[in-house]
Amino acid sequence: MNQVQASVIEKNEELKGMLATVDKVNSSLDGTVAKTDQTLTLLSQVVDYNQSTLQLNNKMLSYSTTTGDNIKAVHQSLEELAPYMNQLDSMLKDLSKTAAKDEQHLQGILESTKSLNNKTPGVTP
């Protein structure tokens, strides 16, 4: 730089003020860079947590889907079983009626036996 330029720069107060302002901006930018790095670190952690949450949600979706499929299969099996259960119910009702009639018949035989025993000499009821 020549002597004239150096002298102009040296005597220019505005230039000194600008340099001071640039130094302040520079030091302020250091703080901004530090905060930006910190923010980036925190955002990275959030992304990691979101990834973990997504994986967990996908597993839950898979388990829910499997459970839903199993419930559908159980429902289908119960629907297929329904006619047999109705048939079994009908047969049990018929069996109950038959048992009631059999009880009446056996009660009649018991009464007849008692009556015959009372009429037969030497038989003690």
Write structural notes for this entry.
With 125 residues, this protein is mostly helical. It contains two helices and no strands. It has helices at residues 3-11, 13-119. The longest helix has 107 residues, at 13-119. The mean pLDDT is 89.
List keywords for this structure.
125 residues; rod-shaped; mainly alpha
- The average pLDDT score comes to 89
Elements, N to C (H/E) = HH
Tertiary shape? rod-shaped
Largest β-sheet summary: none
What proportion of the residues is helical, as a percent range? over 70%
Give the termini separation: 147 Å
What low-confidence regions span 5 or more consecutive residues with pLDDT below 50? Answer: none
Tell how many strands the DSSP assignment holds. 0
Output the number of helix runs. 2
Structural class: mainly alpha
Radius of gyration from CA coordinates: 50 Å
